[in-house]
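Journal club side-thread
Mid-discussion, someone asked how the predicted structure for our own chain would compare to the paper's figures. Pasting it here so we can look after the session.
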Amino acid sequence: MLNETVLDKMQSPDESRYEKKVVVYGMTMHEIESIVKSHPAIFTEIHSPRYINNIYLDTLEMSNYFDNVNGLSTRLKVRIRWYGDLFGFIENPVLEFKTKRGLIGRKICFPLKSFCLDNKSSLERQQEIFMESGVPEIFIEYLKTLRFTLLNRYYRKYFESADHRFRITIDSGMEYYRLESSNNSFNEKKVDYHSCILELKYLKENEDFSESFFNHLPFRLTKCSKYASGIENLYS
Protein backbone atom coordinates (compact mmCIF):
# COMPACT_ATOMS: atom_id res chain seq x y z
CA MET A 1 0.00 0.00 0.00
CA LEU A 2 1.32 3.44 -0.87
CA ASN A 3 2.49 5.69 1.93
CA GLU A 4 0.19 8.68 1.40
CA THR A 5 2.27 10.90 3.68
CA VAL A 6 5.28 10.41 1.42
CA LEU A 7 3.21 11.08 -1.71
CA ASP A 8 1.72 14.25 -0.24
CA LYS A 9 5.24 15.57 0.35
CA MET A 10 5.92 15.17 -3.37
CA GLN A 11 3.16 17.30 -4.86
CA SER A 12 4.78 20.28 -6.53
CA PRO A 13 2.87 20.78 -9.82
CA ASP A 14 5.32 23.29 -11.28
CA GLU A 15 7.83 20.47 -11.83
CA SER A 16 5.39 17.74 -12.85
CA ARG A 17 5.76 16.38 -16.37
CA TYR A 18 4.26 13.85 -18.71
CA GLU A 19 6.29 10.72 -19.37
CA LYS A 20 5.21 8.51 -22.26
CA LYS A 21 7.07 5.37 -23.32
CA VAL A 22 7.44 3.17 -26.38
CA VAL A 23 9.08 -0.26 -26.43
CA VAL A 24 10.75 -0.81 -29.82
CA TYR A 25 11.64 -4.32 -30.98
CA GLY A 26 13.78 -5.35 -33.91
CA MET A 27 15.55 -2.02 -34.38
CA THR A 28 19.00 -0.88 -33.31
CA MET A 29 19.54 2.24 -31.26
CA HIS A 30 21.16 3.82 -34.31
CA GLU A 31 18.03 3.19 -36.40
CA ILE A 32 15.76 4.64 -33.70
CA GLU A 33 18.06 7.64 -33.33
CA SER A 34 17.81 8.31 -37.08
CA ILE A 35 14.01 8.37 -36.84
CA VAL A 36 14.14 10.77 -33.88
CA LYS A 37 16.52 13.10 -35.70
CA SER A 38 14.26 13.18 -38.76
CA HIS A 39 11.30 14.43 -36.71
CA PRO A 40 10.12 17.94 -37.76
CA ALA A 41 10.62 19.14 -34.17
CA ILE A 42 14.37 18.91 -34.93
CA PHE A 43 15.84 16.83 -32.12
CA THR A 44 19.54 17.06 -31.29
CA GLU A 45 21.63 15.20 -28.76
CA ILE A 46 22.01 17.21 -25.54
CA HIS A 47 24.07 15.01 -23.24
CA SER A 48 26.85 12.49 -23.55
CA PRO A 49 25.48 8.92 -23.55
CA ARG A 50 25.99 7.11 -20.28
CA TYR A 51 25.17 3.97 -18.32
CA ILE A 52 22.44 4.31 -15.71
CA ASN A 53 22.33 1.99 -12.70
CA ASN A 54 19.48 1.54 -10.22
CA ILE A 55 18.84 -0.31 -6.99
CA TYR A 56 15.09 -0.66 -6.40
CA LEU A 57 13.47 -1.04 -3.02
CA ASP A 58 9.96 -2.30 -2.31
CA THR A 59 7.81 -3.47 0.57
CA LEU A 60 7.82 -7.07 1.77
CA GLU A 61 4.53 -7.51 -0.08
CA MET A 62 6.00 -5.94 -3.27
CA SER A 63 3.30 -3.24 -3.10
CA ASN A 64 4.99 -0.86 -5.54
CA TYR A 65 5.38 -3.61 -8.12
CA PHE A 66 1.76 -4.79 -7.84
CA ASP A 67 0.42 -1.22 -7.92
CA ASN A 68 2.16 -0.87 -11.28
CA VAL A 69 1.01 -4.13 -12.87
CA ASN A 70 -2.53 -3.66 -11.55
CA GLY A 71 -2.72 -0.26 -13.20
CA LEU A 72 -3.30 1.92 -10.14
CA SER A 73 -3.48 5.56 -11.13
CA THR A 74 -1.12 6.57 -8.30
CA ARG A 75 2.13 4.64 -8.11
CA LEU A 76 5.44 4.98 -6.29
CA LYS A 77 8.97 3.74 -7.05
CA VAL A 78 11.92 4.02 -4.70
CA ARG A 79 15.41 3.63 -6.11
CA ILE A 80 19.06 4.52 -5.69
CA ARG A 81 20.52 5.80 -8.96
CA TRP A 82 24.07 6.42 -10.16
CA TYR A 83 25.99 6.64 -13.43
CA GLY A 84 29.02 4.82 -14.81
CA ASP A 85 30.40 1.60 -13.36
CA LEU A 86 27.88 -0.87 -11.95
CA PHE A 87 30.02 -2.43 -9.21
CA GLY A 88 32.74 -1.21 -6.88
CA PHE A 89 32.99 2.25 -5.35
CA ILE A 90 29.88 4.23 -6.22
CA GLU A 91 30.26 8.01 -6.35
CA ASN A 92 27.43 10.56 -6.31
CA PRO A 93 24.52 8.15 -5.79
CA VAL A 94 21.05 9.67 -5.44
CA LEU A 95 18.00 8.36 -3.60
CA GLU A 96 14.85 8.96 -5.64
CA PHE A 97 11.18 8.79 -4.66
CA LYS A 98 9.30 8.81 -7.96
CA THR A 99 5.53 9.02 -8.11
CA LYS A 100 3.20 8.80 -11.09
CA ARG A 101 -0.40 9.94 -11.20
CA GLY A 102 -1.63 8.63 -14.53
CA LEU A 103 1.04 9.66 -17.07
CA ILE A 104 2.32 12.57 -14.98
CA GLY A 105 5.59 11.94 -13.16
CA ARG A 106 7.23 13.71 -10.27
CA LYS A 107 10.24 12.85 -8.13
CA ILE A 108 12.15 14.04 -5.11
CA CYS A 109 15.89 13.32 -4.92
CA PHE A 110 18.33 13.16 -2.02
CA PRO A 111 22.12 12.96 -2.58
CA LEU A 112 23.70 10.05 -0.73
CA LYS A 113 27.15 9.34 0.63
CA SER A 114 29.35 7.21 -1.62
CA PHE A 115 29.23 3.47 -1.00
CA CYS A 116 30.65 0.23 -2.34
CA LEU A 117 28.47 -2.26 -4.21
CA ASP A 118 29.88 -5.77 -3.89
CA ASN A 119 29.03 -9.12 -2.30
CA LYS A 120 29.38 -7.53 1.15
CA SER A 121 26.67 -4.95 0.46
CA SER A 122 23.62 -5.17 2.72
CA LEU A 123 20.31 -3.47 3.32
CA GLU A 124 21.39 -2.79 6.90
CA ARG A 125 24.41 -0.80 5.72
CA GLN A 126 22.29 1.01 3.13
CA GLN A 127 19.83 2.09 5.81
CA GLU A 128 22.77 3.56 7.73
CA ILE A 129 23.86 5.45 4.61
CA PHE A 130 20.36 6.95 4.29
CA MET A 131 20.60 8.33 7.82
CA GLU A 132 24.22 9.47 7.47
CA SER A 133 23.27 11.32 4.26
CA GLY A 134 20.67 13.48 5.98
CA VAL A 135 17.56 12.04 4.35
CA PRO A 136 14.54 13.61 6.14
CA GLU A 137 13.02 11.54 8.91
CA ILE A 138 9.63 11.14 7.23
CA PHE A 139 11.35 9.35 4.34
CA ILE A 140 13.66 7.38 6.67
CA GLU A 141 10.63 5.89 8.42
CA TYR A 142 9.18 4.77 5.10
CA LEU A 143 12.54 3.36 3.95
CA LYS A 144 12.65 1.17 7.07
CA THR A 145 9.66 -0.75 5.69
CA LEU A 146 11.41 -1.58 2.41
CA ARG A 147 13.83 -4.24 1.16
CA PHE A 148 16.13 -4.65 -1.82
CA THR A 149 14.44 -6.24 -4.84
CA LEU A 150 16.25 -5.43 -8.09
CA LEU A 151 19.46 -4.06 -9.57
CA ASN A 152 19.35 -2.91 -13.18
CA ARG A 153 21.52 -1.17 -15.75
CA TYR A 154 21.06 0.28 -19.25
CA TYR A 155 22.67 2.64 -21.75
CA ARG A 156 20.91 5.98 -22.38
CA LYS A 157 21.09 8.68 -25.07
CA TYR A 158 19.43 12.09 -24.65
CA PHE A 159 17.74 14.38 -27.20
CA GLU A 160 15.83 17.67 -27.08
CA SER A 161 13.59 19.47 -29.60
CA ALA A 162 14.69 22.78 -31.07
CA ASP A 163 12.01 24.66 -29.11
CA HIS A 164 13.14 22.93 -25.86
CA ARG A 165 9.62 21.73 -25.11
CA PHE A 166 10.19 18.00 -25.63
CA ARG A 167 12.91 15.62 -24.52
CA ILE A 168 13.49 12.08 -25.68
CA THR A 169 15.65 9.40 -24.12
CA ILE A 170 16.54 6.08 -25.77
CA ASP A 171 17.56 3.20 -23.49
CA SER A 172 19.17 -0.04 -24.67
CA GLY A 173 21.06 -3.03 -23.33
CA MET A 174 18.85 -3.75 -20.31
CA GLU A 175 20.46 -5.87 -17.61
CA TYR A 176 18.57 -7.12 -14.55
CA TYR A 177 20.05 -8.65 -11.39
CA ARG A 178 18.14 -10.25 -8.55
CA LEU A 179 19.02 -8.43 -5.35
CA GLU A 180 18.74 -9.75 -1.82
CA SER A 181 19.18 -7.80 1.41
CA SER A 182 22.63 -9.37 1.93
CA ASN A 183 25.05 -11.98 0.52
CA ASN A 184 24.66 -11.14 -3.15
CA SER A 185 26.79 -12.88 -5.77
CA PHE A 186 25.01 -11.07 -8.65
CA ASN A 187 25.03 -14.33 -10.61
CA GLU A 188 21.26 -14.38 -11.17
CA LYS A 189 21.05 -12.09 -14.17
CA LYS A 190 18.80 -11.54 -17.18
CA VAL A 191 19.61 -9.39 -20.21
CA ASP A 192 17.53 -7.87 -22.99
CA TYR A 193 19.58 -6.77 -25.97
CA HIS A 194 16.66 -7.07 -28.43
CA SER A 195 14.53 -4.08 -27.47
CA CYS A 196 14.96 -0.38 -26.80
CA ILE A 197 12.80 1.96 -24.76
CA LEU A 198 12.04 5.42 -26.10
CA GLU A 199 10.59 7.89 -23.61
CA LEU A 200 9.09 11.29 -24.36
CA LYS A 201 9.09 13.84 -21.52
CA TYR A 202 7.43 17.24 -21.44
CA LEU A 203 5.75 19.67 -19.05
CA LYS A 204 1.98 19.57 -18.53
CA GLU A 205 1.60 22.89 -20.37
CA ASN A 206 2.72 21.22 -23.63
CA GLU A 207 0.20 18.37 -23.56
CA ASP A 208 -1.88 20.02 -26.33
CA PHE A 209 1.05 19.58 -28.73
CA SER A 210 1.80 15.94 -27.92
CA GLU A 211 -0.72 14.32 -30.27
CA SER A 212 0.70 16.04 -33.35
CA PHE A 213 4.15 15.19 -32.07
CA PHE A 214 3.42 11.45 -32.03
CA ASN A 215 1.86 11.57 -35.49
CA HIS A 216 5.41 11.95 -36.85
CA LEU A 217 6.77 8.86 -35.08
CA PRO A 218 6.18 5.31 -36.39
CA PHE A 219 5.74 3.97 -32.85
CA ARG A 220 2.74 3.22 -30.64
CA LEU A 221 2.61 4.18 -26.99
CA THR A 222 2.96 1.21 -24.66
CA LYS A 223 2.84 0.65 -20.93
CA CYS A 224 6.39 0.00 -19.81
CA SER A 225 8.18 -0.19 -16.47
CA LYS A 226 11.80 -1.30 -16.28
CA TYR A 227 11.21 -2.19 -12.63
CA ALA A 228 8.20 -4.39 -13.40
CA SER A 229 9.99 -5.98 -16.37
CA GLY A 230 12.99 -6.81 -14.21
CA ILE A 231 10.89 -8.36 -11.47
CA GLU A 232 8.95 -10.46 -13.98
CA ASN A 233 12.13 -11.63 -15.72
CA LEU A 234 13.88 -12.64 -12.51
CA TYR A 235 11.13 -13.83 -10.18
CA SER A 236 8.60 -15.52 -12.48
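Post-session note: Residues 123-132 form the longest helix (10 residues).
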